[in-house]
Amino acid sequence: MQKRYSKVFMILLVSIMMTALAAGCGNGSNKGNGGSSSEPAQTNDSKGKEPASSGKKEKLVYYGFSEWTADPAIAPVLEELKTKFAAENPGYEVEFQSDPWGSWETKYKVMFASGNGPDVFIVNNPDFPAFANSGYLLDLGASLGEDAFKDFFPGILSMYDWSGKHMALPYTTDARVLWYNKEIFKQAGLDPEKPPATWSELKQYAAQITEATGGKVAGFGMDLGLKEFPSQSLFTASPGSIIEVKDGAITPNVNTPEFKGYLQLLADMKPSYEADYATLDHLKLGTLFAQKKVAMVIAGTWITDQNPDLKGADFYGQALVPKMDANAPDGSFGGGFGIAVAANTKHPEAAAKLAQMLTSVDFNARTMTDVPANNASLAVSKFATDPAYAIFQEQIKFARQSQPKTLYYKEIDSAVYDTVTKVIVGNLAIDKAIADLENKIKEIAAQK
């Protein structure tokens, strides 16, 4: 199956490449906003060969998007990294290449499809399964050893595992937390310093707020309009997983107390949702929270990014995502980017060292603007000293995704979204919804 899907992915990427060429994207120049040149990364002719003693340096190409690579605050740090790497690895030099975000997403797929991928690159979390399945990624666990992965947050590290192997180093991450309106809590007779800690408390508080405000304020915000696994953070704050993967076989894991309880919770809270809950996305929901029309939402930092007036406001609080029950593990949805090494790099050992340096405490927090994905880098980042991110510092360590990474991650996520929609909007019985979802996941996993 893996070989077949590698071919399918290659065909799709070649199609993208041809489209890009027609549009003038693949003109042999990879010069982006950073002004980087674009010689293709070296192929595998002399893999593992040591640099020549003539003084000529072997080039390692690192490829990212210009919003970071060419950022005036970040570019000097990358030059510092370049100098340090050359000093520690004589005979090698690093070249940074980049393109703006809008074209980067297509361009790096085209580069691999055409056999001209960089040595080291940023891999987007949603693209990771296709890259790993197509054999484009070097096994970094074998190259660096297990000690190199000990400081990364476990849930985030698992996002870059493929068939039990570490195929990328976590570079950035994020998490969602519970945002709640303290003023509305008081109005509803709730303690503003005691946000809900469990699913049952969340349901109780949401209903109490809706009743106390005569329905003028929605107790809890639902964002079905996002068309992704809704309120996934609630489910990750349980021991559950949507699927199990063993020896490459995918088995649905939704006929469980965790998933049934999750569906029941969302169905029970329906009277507490804002009237347009079926069409709201996370950005619209964040605005409603800022307007004090929704009392509680699960969201990331985009609420204050999108609503600057909230910065410094004292009417809201933040808390960890409510858990399934008091004995359940903490959890939240997490995403982000990884740093990967091309499987066909000419210099796998040096490229793996470059990837490790990019995610090291010396450079991780300084070479991007998102949250670092390991303890040491997070501790020296701007997020560690900003009170606005205090709860995120605690929550991010428990971030994960609701299923292991497989080639069918997106399809299964979409199937879960459809199931939740049928339960909440269509009032489908939960047992029927779970049976249908089991069959759907089996169909997805059985694709040949």
CATH class of the largest domain: Alpha Beta
- Beta-strand portion reads 5-15%
User: Could you give a short account of the major beta sheet?
Assistant: 5 strands, mixed
Tally of extended strands? 16
Under CATH, the homologous superfamily of the largest domain reads Periplasmic binding protein-like II
Structural class: alpha+beta
Can you walk me through this structure?
38% of the residues lie in helices and 14% in strands. It has 448 residues and is of the alpha+beta class. 47% of the residues are buried. The strands form six sheets. The chain has a five-stranded mixed sheet with strand order 2-1-3-14-6. Helix 1 crosses helix 4 (101-113) and helix 17 (409-424) packs antiparallel against helix 18. The protein contains 18 helices and 16 strands. The protein folds into two domains: 2-174 and 335-398, Periplasmic binding protein-like II (D-Maltodextrin-Binding Protein, domain 2), CATH 3.40.190.10; 177-333 and 408-445, D-Maltodextrin-Binding Protein, domain 2. Residues 1-22 form the signal peptide. It comes from Paenibacillus radicis (ex Gao et al. 2016). It holds the Pfam family SBP_bac_1.
Q: Key terms for this structure?
A:
448 residues, globular, 5-stranded mixed beta sheet, 16 strands, D-Maltodextrin-Binding Protein, domain 2, alpha+beta, Bact_solute-bd_prot1, 38% helix, 2 domains, SBP, 18 helices, Sugar ABC transporter substrate-binding protein
Summarize the structure.
This is Sugar ABC transporter substrate-binding protein. Residues 28-53 are annotated as: Disordered. The protein has 18 helices and 16 strands.
